[in-house]
Amino acid sequence: MFKRVLISTDLSDGLLRLGKFLPSLAAGGMEHIVFVHSVPLWTKGQIPREDTEKISLARDRLNGILTQVPDGLQVEVEVLSGNPTENILKAAERYKSEVMILGASHRNLLSEKLFGSTTLELSGRTNIPMMTIPTALLSPLTAEELDLRCRHLFRYILLPYADTQASGVLLEEFKRYAQKRPPNSLERCMLAWVIDAGVLRNVPKDYKLKEAHEKLAPLKAELEAIGLQVDVEVRLGEPVLDILDLAQMSDICAVALASNSLGKILDWFPSFAAEVLRRSCEPVIFFPSRR
Description:
Pfam families: Usp (PF00582)
Oligomer: single chain
Family: Belongs to the universal stress protein A family.
Domain UspA: 1-133
Protein name: Universal stress protein
Largest sheet: 10 strands, mixed
InterPro entries: Rossmann-like_a/b/a_fold, UspA
């Protein structure tokens, strides 16, 4: 789905392993990959400065695994000192990255700032999509399994829909990238509308289901017109729980989300997008709004 990819790693989030599967990533359509690692400033002296020793060690570790670069794929390594968010944004601009891949670990609400601080900051400062990959997903995979995962990173995407502004942003951005996708990348998507059964009062459930199918029909046709195989799922339930269930029980590779509020700390907790991002065991692609 994306040709130019930035992978930001702290060297302990599992994303470093992706460097061992460059031919597989290239087989999935990637043409340019930049690995970015940020080293904190050395602050033991009176004036903060670059920690040249840690920078050198990190660069050696990254370069040590990026050995199997196939023809047609360009790979860069950026080891920078200072604020991770600033470094990622500078590298993404420099290399014209189309998506930023970051690691994600599951934490409770009390440690939410630690969980998503970089993701939160980036979402409010960039129009570039971000993909979070849970550390717990990568860690147990064997080399054979991870090879296949890298080839299918964007093969089948789940698109939650609810006839909201965020849903409109999601489809608009998804189509924009899908139309220029490289070969052997995105092939299929699922439009999923989970109607919150808890808010239905006097409205007949059959009517709501029928209405949802009717609204999704033209959207399905638009996606099929750009060469995608499109599945449609409409159900009553709890939106977050049912989307997570679909992600686990279907053959999807990632969940796609969009929200105008993800980058605002005060709006982080009640956000549907944030809740799915926090709890998903599958990769999540977040599309920031361009509006």
